[in-house]
Amino acid sequence: MVVIILFSILGFIIYRGISVISWDFLTKMPDDGMTKGGILPAIVGTGYLVLGSMIFAFPIGVLSGIYTHEYLKDSWLKTFIRFMTNNLSGIPSIVFGLFGMALFVNYLKFGDSIIAGSLTLGLLTLPVVIRTTEEALKSVEDSLRLGSYALGATKLQTIHRVILPVAYPNIITGLILSIGRVSGETAPILFTVAAYFLPKLPSSIHDQVMALPYHLYVLATSGTNMEKTRPMAYGTAFVLISIVLIINTLASILRRRLGKKVKMN
Q: Which of 186, 229, 232, 245 satisfies CB 3.0 to 4.6 Å to 213 for a cystine?
């Protein structure tokens, strides 16, 4: 049933959107109130936001997971941190958007910009990275840790040279889930970075950008000419799904290769 639902959604989007896809649609600027032209600024903007959020969330999330699992002993503090991490992952995305607007846009004076949007999306995905890192570390057998310690390695050397190489494939899963969530979020970028109509590419991290999820929302609900904007909305949805599928496929290939290297070693 899950496979049927998935292929039904994909089939519907492909059937409705494939006719719109062309080189001009992917490489040109929007024009005439987004009823003509392409979606290049939205594609580039989405890429910047995904990259910026991962630069922020992935290192902090992985280090937090390592600290929680490898260094922090079982205590009320560890339980409290995990409890708060789980609560953070359950907060609605629109609340993250309001918080990002209050902190990054207004208080830190970043304004509506790539850096504000990226930091907000990074906070949104941080719990996912932390939890998947912890689960990846749990899957590493304790015998590997004990063997490393018996050979005279320090805890830091054990984590760096023994535990992380084994856990990398599963940590990549967290990255995949995070990218998938970031690329499709609308509410957080609505308050921090997304522009309604911006037919140019960003020149710095302090610029506003168009993004595929918000662009899709605008085309589907706020178009002045629904007959013209509706096909472009399906085309945008097709591009967004394609990007997510390509990223997931590449990440899965990387995960498999890392897993094979670990088994060979």
A: 186
